[in-house]
Amino acid sequence: MADRFTKMHGLGNDFVVIDARANSVEMTPARAHAIADRRHGIGCDQLILLEPSSKADVKMRIFNADGSEVEACGNATRCVATLIGKPAVIETLGGMLRVTPADGGAEVVLGEPVFDWEHIPLAMPMDTRDMPVAWDELEHGAAVNVGNPHIIFFVPEADAVALGDLGPRIETDPLFPERVNVNVASLDGENQLQLRVWERGVGLTQACGTGACATAVAAIRAGIVKSPVTVSLPGGDLVIRWSPGEPIVMSGAATRVFEGETDWAQFG
User: Fold this and answer.
1) Per the count of CB atoms within 10 A, which of 47, 66, 81, 253 is most buried?
2) Range(s) of the domain holding residue 234
3) Cα(140)–Cα(151) distance, rounded to whole angstroms?
4) Is the pTM higher than 0.90?
C-alpha cells in the first residue's frame, strides 16, 4: 500500500504534510532531511507530521529541511487548519494553537509572546527590546519567542540587507543556544511592514508566519506600528493582531498544491 502525502504552501513557504493519525509513520531527522531534498526527494521547507493527540484535536510535528525538529511554524499551522476543515486545537512543541479555517486560508491564535532573555533563550542576560549586540550593519535587535526564537532588526530598507550572508552567521551565533530565526523589517506605510526572514534550519524563505508574528509584536512594542499590522513577505501578506497581555492572532492564505504517493522506506 502506497504512503500518501499532501504538498501545500503558505505564501510560498512549502510543506510535505503527512497525515499519520490512522497509520503511524516513523520519522527521523535523516528521513525528514531526505524527503525535503529538492533534487533527490519530494522537496519542501518543512515536513509536517500529523499524529493523534490526547490533549488536542491533532498533534503537529515540524521538521525543518535540515532534519531538525522545531517547535512552531505559523504557515504550516494555517495549512493544517485547511486540511482539518473546521475549528480545532493543534498540539505542537511550542504549545497549543487554536485554528479556524477561512476562505482560502485560516486564522491562527498563538500563545502570548515571551520576552525574558532566558526563555528566548539567550546565552546571557540582556534587554531583549534593544539588544546591545551587532552583526555588521544589523544592530539593536529585539528578541521574541512566539513558540520558537526570533531576532528582529528594523532597517531603512529590508531588501538592501545581505541576509543570505548575515542570516547563517546570526542563526548559529553562540548567543543563541538553540539557534535563532533572523528577521529584517522596514516600515512600508501606516501599520505595514516589509519583512524578509532567514529561517533556522531552512535558510531564506518566501514567508515565515512566526517571523511575521514576532516582527509585528516587536514593532508594536517599539511604537513603530499599531495593531492590526499587515506584514508583507516575498510570498504575500499576513495580518497580525496583538495587544500586550494577549495572544497573537495571525490570518493569511494557505494552498493545497497536490496529493502524492510514495514509499517512505526509500528515504531511509
Assistant:
1) 47
2) 117-246
3) 10
4) yes
